[in-house]
Amino acid sequence: MNAPSDALVRVHTDNGIATVTLNHPERRNSLSMAMLEALSEALSGVAGDHQARVVVLASAGHIFCAGHDLREMREQFDSQDYQLRLFQQCSKVMQQIVNLPKPVIARVAGVATAAGCQLVASCDLAVAAQGTRFATPGVNIGLFCSTPMVALSRNVSRKHAMEMLLTGEMIDAEHAVNIGLINRVVAPETLDETVYALANTIAGKSAHTLKIGKEAFYRQLEMPLADAYDYTAQVMAENMKANDAREGISAFLDKREPSWKHR
Questions:
Q1: CATH number of 9-203: 3.10.450.50, 3.90.1140.10, 3.90.226.10, 3.50.50.60?
Q2: pTM, full prediction
């Protein structure tokens, strides 16, 4: 599936990798209602695309995502219904990323602030170029980053999350790696090479196995320890029934490359 080049969100699938690109650089790829709806539609399409085994979330221009569109929000100051619908739509998109049955890698360059930082934190993996900066600066404009806090606090330690939320200050990519917000920081000229090498590595695995593992990862996180072990034991026992598990184990023992059927 491929979206038009002038769409708010472009989608291009090649070699098992779907690149979903925020495509409104004139507005800093801000998450307006229209952008959120377009992103939601793109994610739904990718979820059902059997050719796509890994998703790269990227952006056009020099800013990854500056968060919500404040001009649009100001125009709707008196509509609490609109404000609620906006934040609910944003929350829906973040949950779509987490619930997508395929790994999602954020390709980050420039700036990712507020809901843009939330977008990065919601992805399964994230690679950023040197010079990229992150922040949850809502506190600076009287609007605490409460929904970005959900994704942020589930990816970095409480004290690091609170420092970002309470100060609103920018952090650089190197610090973002240290606190667990992103996986890697690389030179800008090697960003694409690194992201797509990582995506290709993952795309070479069984799509069925990746789906099982991603779902189990997020479900067990919220469970008490004993419940998590009970749940994941059941997941592994069920996983063993899959064609790809049997093929993978046999290939390993026979010292050959597996031939995945993705089931």
A1: 3.90.226.10
A2: 0.95
